[in-house]
C-alpha cells in the first residue's frame, strides 16, 4: 500500500529525529567525562569566578556594546544620508569610508586606532583616553560602516510615493527625510539592526588587542585570563553560557519582529 505524501513527510521527520537522538546519545556515551568535567566543568573554579565574571566581564561587555551601538548608529545614519545625497563629494566620502572599514578586519582597525593613530598624531595614547577608549572608538568606526549600509537599504525601501506626498504638502527635502523617510525606514531595519547588536556584542572580545585593565576587561578577556590563572577551561565555558544567555533572547526577539513585520506587510 502506497503511503500518502503527508505520511512520507511525517516518516521522514521521525527518521531525522531518530538519527539526531542517536548522534546525541553516541556523543554522550563516548565523551571522556572523567577528563572533561575537571578541566571544563569544575564547580570549584566556577564558584571562584562568581560574581566577578558577571559584575566585571558581562557588565563591561554590555556597556561596551551599548556605547558602540549607539555611537555607531548615529554615525551610520549620517553616512547613509551622505551616501544617498545628491552632492557628489558627500557620496564619495561615505562610499570610501564604508568600503574601507568593511573591507578591513575589525581587529586591525582597533589596533590601528589604539596604537598607530596616537603615534601618527604625535600624542600619547593616554592623552586620547587610553587604550580602552581608543579601542572602543575603533569598534564604533567598524560598526558604523556596517550599520550605514543597513540603514541606507532601509531608507531606500520606503516607497517613493511617501516622499512625493510629503513634498506635495510643502515639506522641504530635509523635513521629508527626517519626519517621513527615516521613521518608516527604521521600522524596516529594526530586525537587521538587532542582529548587528548581537554581532557587536561578540566583537567586543576584539578589544583585548588594545590592552585592558582589571576594571575594563570584557567577558572573553576576563574568562581567558581566569583560565590561565587557574589552568582550567571552566571560565571559558561560563563565558560562553553568559554570551548565550544574552544573545539567544535577542535573536528570538529578532525572529519575532521579522514575523510580525511580514504579517503587517
Task: Describe the structure using short key phrases.
mainly alpha, 0% strand, MetI-like fold
What would you note in describing this structure?
It is a single chain. With 265 residues, the chain is mainly α. The protein has a single domain (43-264), classed as MetI-like fold. The chain has helices spanning 5-30, 33-40, 43-49, 52-83, 88-103, 106-121, 130-156, 160-168, 173-203, 219-230, 234-264. Helix 4 packs antiparallel against helix 9 (173-203), helix 4 packs antiparallel against helix 10 (219-230) and helix 5 (88-103) packs across helix 7. The longest helix is centred in the first third of the chain and has 32 residues, at 52-83. The two termini are 44 Å apart.
Number of H/I helices: 11
Order of helices and strands: HHHHHHHHHHH
In round numbers, the mean pLDDT is 83
Helix content: over 70%
Write the layout of secondary structure elements.
Blueprint: H1 5-30, H2 33-40, H3 43-49, H4 52-83, H5 88-103, H6 106-121, H7 130-156, H8 160-168, H9 173-203, H10 219-230, H11 234-264
Quick description:
By secondary structure, the chain is mostly helical. The chain has eleven helices and no strands. It has helices spanning about 5-30, 35-40, 45-50, 50-85, 90-105, 105-120, 130-155, 160-170, 175-205, 220-230, 235-265.
Amino acid at each position: 500500500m502506497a503511503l500518502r505524501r503527508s505520511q512520507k513527510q511525517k516518516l521522514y521527520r521521525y527518521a531525522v529525529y531518530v538519527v539526531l537522538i542517536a548522534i546525541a546519545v553516541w556523543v554522550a556515551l563516548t565523551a571522556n567525562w572523567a577528563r572533561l568535567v575537571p578541566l571544563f566543568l569544575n564547580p570549584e573554579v566556577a564558584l571562584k569566578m562568581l560574581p566577578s565574571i558577571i559584575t566585571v566581564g558581562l557588565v563591561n561587555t554590555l556597556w561596551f556594546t551599548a556605547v558602540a551601538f549607539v555611537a555607531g548608529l548615529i554615525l551610520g545614519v549620517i553616512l547613509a544620508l551622505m551616501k544617498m545625497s545628491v552632492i557628489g563629494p558627500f557620496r564619495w566620502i561615505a562610499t570610501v569610508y564604508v568600503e574601507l572599514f568593511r573591507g578591513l578586519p575589525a581587529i586591525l582597525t582597533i589596533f590601528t586606532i589604539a596604537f598607530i593613530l596616537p603615534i601618527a598624531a604625535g600624542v600619547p595614547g593616554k592623552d586620547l583616553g587610553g587604550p580602552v577608549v581608543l579601542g572602543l572608538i575603533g569598534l564604533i568606526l567598524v560598526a558604523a560602516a556596517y550599520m550605514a549600509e543597513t540603514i541606507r537599504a532601509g531608507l531606500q525601501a520606503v516607497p517613493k510615493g511617501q516622499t512625493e506626498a510629503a513634498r506635495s504638502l510643502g515639506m522641504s527635502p530635509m523635513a521629508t527625510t527626517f519626519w517621513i523617510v527615516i521613521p518608516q525606514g527604521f521600522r524596516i531595519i529594526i530586525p537587521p539592526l538587532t542582529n548587528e547588536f548581537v554581532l557587536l556584542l561578540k566583537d567586543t572580545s576584539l578589544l583585548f588587542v588594545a590592552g585592558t585593565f582589571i576594571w575594563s576587561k570584557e567577558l572573553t578577556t576576563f574568562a581567558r585570563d581566569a583560565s590561565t590563572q587557574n589552568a582550567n577551561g571552566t571560565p571559558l565555558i561560563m563565558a560562553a553560557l553568559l554570551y548565550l544567555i544574552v544573545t539567544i533572547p535577542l535573536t528570538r526577539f529578532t525572529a519575532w519582529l521579522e514575523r510580525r513585520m511580514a504579517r503587517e506587510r
